[in-house]
Design a protein that fits this description.
The protein is an all-alpha fold. It has one domain. It has ten helices and no strands.
């Protein structure tokens, strides 16, 4: 359970970095480069200290990465540009838990006890209350609707990818194989790299075919350095160390329990948005935070 909470802390830092890098580079470029950072770092671990491409379930982890890192995170970056980090984190982390629980119940037959289910509902309800959107919205209605759609797709990707990872661990255990979280994260990120490479190549080709202006524009000074910083932070906190901790949690705990804990990520985003954007949490945010923490404690106690 501790590894799931560590993953939530890292994911909260990652989503702020993702939002900053996406606004500097664009959604596809920011997503692609942070995946490249993760591939290099996780590859160093997996081939130096882990199982590399071994373990007998590479294809399952690879497919999990295609769904979660690939389609899911592409939708996440598109949602960030339309909804911002707080609402995007709320939608994705909250919806991923029931999606994963339903998929795992239908496919793997994993059932949660009544107390565990109630604790999961308490966590999700607390997160929803804490990040309830304000009445006045500055985002255009069309962009907001698109952001919600991308958020739902991202949540499906995260939930489906988590269940596939659980399946991969189960198959590996039946084969007598032991796979560490870093190796699993590496095999998954390779699947994500294949998916995110497609829109990146399309964008590069589209850009090369466009007529060049007589006086090319340039980005503001310092943009590249700032973008590089946020991409590295995102790559480290999210798909590298964060996902390694997340995979370790999924190895020992059903996704329907892990994902409600990582659903507290939007609560942990609050200090970051306050620090960087001056967004002071209100009564709803504090009340929801208390409810979510109580849910995490109850979930931890009921799972031993």
């Amino acid at each position: 359970m501790l590894s799931a909470f560590i993953a939530a802390c890292l994911f909260s830092a990652s989503i702020i970095a993702a939002d900053r890098s996406a606004r500097l580079l664009g959604s596809h470029a920011a997503n692609f480069w942070r995946v490249v950072v993760a591939v290099l770092l996780l590859g160093f671990w997996a081939h130096g200290f882990g199982r590399g491409l071994g373990g007998g379930v590479f294809l399952l982890f690879f497919l999990s990465g295609c769904i979660g890192f690939g389609f899911g995170d592409m939708a996440l970056f598109l949602a960030l540009l339309r909804l911002g980090p707080r609402l995007s984190a709320l939608m994705i982390n909250c919806l991923a838990a029931p999606f994963a629980a339903a998929i795992e119940w239908a496919w793997l037959g994993t059932r949660l006890s009544l107390v565990q289910s109630l604790c999961g509902v308490l966590i999700l309800g607390g997160v929803a209350l804490a990040l309830l959107p304000e009445r006045r919205q500055t985002t255009p209605r069309g962009a907001r609707a698109a952001g919600i759609g991308f958020g739902i797709i991202a949540a499906l990707g995260q939930g489906g990818g988590a269940v596939l990872s659980r399946k991969a661990y189960a198959v590996a255990a039946d084969m007598g194989e032991q796979i560490d979280g870093g190796t699993a994260a590496y095999q998954r990120i390779l699947g994500g790299l294949m998916i995110v490479l497609i829109p990146m190549l399309w964008a590069m080709l589209h850009q090369s075919l466009k007529p060049r202006p007589a006086t090319p524009g340039c980005r503001p000074p310092g943009t590249r350095a700032a973008a590089t910083k946020w991409v590295i932070i995102n790559g480290l906190a999210g798909p590298t160390v964060g996902v390694a901790a997340y995979q370790w949690a999924l190895k020992t705990t059903p996704a329907g329990i892990v994902l409600p804990i990582t659903a507290t990520t939007p609560l942990l985003v609050i200090p970051f948005t306050y620090w960087f954007e001056g967004d002071r949490p209100g009564v709803n945010s504090l009340t929801g935070a208390v409810a979510a923490v109580l849910g995490v404690i109850g979930l931890t106690l009921t799972t031993g």
